[in-house]
UniProtKB/TrEMBL annotation:
Domain spans labelled CusB-like beta-barrel: 219-294
GO cellular component: cell envelope; membrane
Keywords for the protein's UniProt record, in alphabetical order: Transport
Record carries keyword Transport: yes
Entry-linked PROSITE patterns: PROKAR_LIPOPROTEIN
Lineage summary: Bacteria, Pseudomonadati, Bacteroidota, Sphingobacteriia, Sphingobacteriales
Residues of the Multidrug resistance protein MdtA-like C-terminal permuted SH3 domain: 313-357
Protein name per UniProt: RND family efflux transporter, MFP subunit
Statement: the UniProt record of this protein carries the keyword Ribonucleoprotein: no
GO MF annotation list: transmembrane transporter activity
Start and end residues of each CzcB-like barrel-sandwich hybrid domain: 75-215
GO BP term, pick one: copper ion export
Species annotation: Solitalea canadensis (strain ATCC 29591 / DSM 3403 / JCM 21819 / LMG 8368 / NBRC 15130 / NCIMB 12057 / USAM 9D) (Flexibacter canadensis)
Pfam family, one: Beta-barrel_RND_2
Family: Belongs to the membrane fusion protein (MFP) (TC 8.A.1) family.
Amino acid sequence: MHLIRNCFHPVLIGSGMMILLFVGCSNDQPKAIKEEKFIVTDTLLSSLLIDTVKSSNSTSEITLTGKIVPDEDKMVKIYPMVSGLVQDVHVHSGDVVGKGQLLATMRSAEVAGYAKEAISSEAELKTSLREMQVTEDLYNSGMASQRDLEVAKANYEKAKAEDRRSKAVLHINPSKGDLNYMVKSPISGFVIEKKVTNNMQVRTDNAENMFAIADLSSMWALVNVYESDISKVKAGDNVKITTLSYPDKVFSGKIDKVYNTIDPENKVVKARVKINNPDLILKPEMFANVEISSVGDDTMPVIDTQCLIFDNNQYYVLVIEGKEKVKIKPVTIARKTENKAYIRSGVKSGDHLIASRQVFIYESLK
């Protein structure tokens, strides 16, 4: 019996331990954890960037191309006023010239005729003046009629007018000697076109200019505006221009004219921008990239793009409504620029938006 008791004792103890273990395990069953709703506290709000929705006319950015050309208001093309043979060309393309500087000389028979007319008209003027004075003396002594005096005065006035005309023609066609016609620059600037050479024959009916002189301290950018963008571009729009030669330098200006004709080949309308060029780094015929900021007539709420949250093909913002109350609101964007978004619906002017850590807060509130 003693042996039997010793054999059964471990079994009883083991059974008891199993019972205790079972009871202990049943007491450790997992309990349901209650989720707490995320709340944006005052402390959290004070650490965030807050942006206020403003109201503004919508702005669109249009990127176009164009080229740099001389300012036509500061450029002259020089055409031959007389026919003749070019003798000496004193300048070349790219040269700097001053006002009145000699560009070339020509041998011209027409100039000799102008000089002869000027000499003849001056002599005729002196003769008619003398005749008028003599007739006036005779009239005062009763030896000439009133009609004789009037004829003498009329002849003098005609001679005076012819003398003024001949000298004006000679002044427009300056000459050195009887045959040498001088081509001078009427303004200071750069020679941007030279189309004559020594011993070249030129005629007054030639449609091509001899020289073109331009003051390059200001330039024009002619912008190619495609038909689809014509309605978006108008005079007064702000423009930023960059060139291939100076990609990091931005030239600012405004559109001062939109032309009314369409290029039949390229189907574009030209818009003109005047650019100051004091350092003369812009050169004629440079290619230009043009960014136009076009301001619309419609007024819309505008926000900073950093306030936007994009999720599942929809834009959202976090609007603060009252103390510690943040709401997720979907917004419809009418137009976006580099750092501004114009909102068609979803917010109004004066709303306060969260502009930092908004993705984290959005995910927590969602």
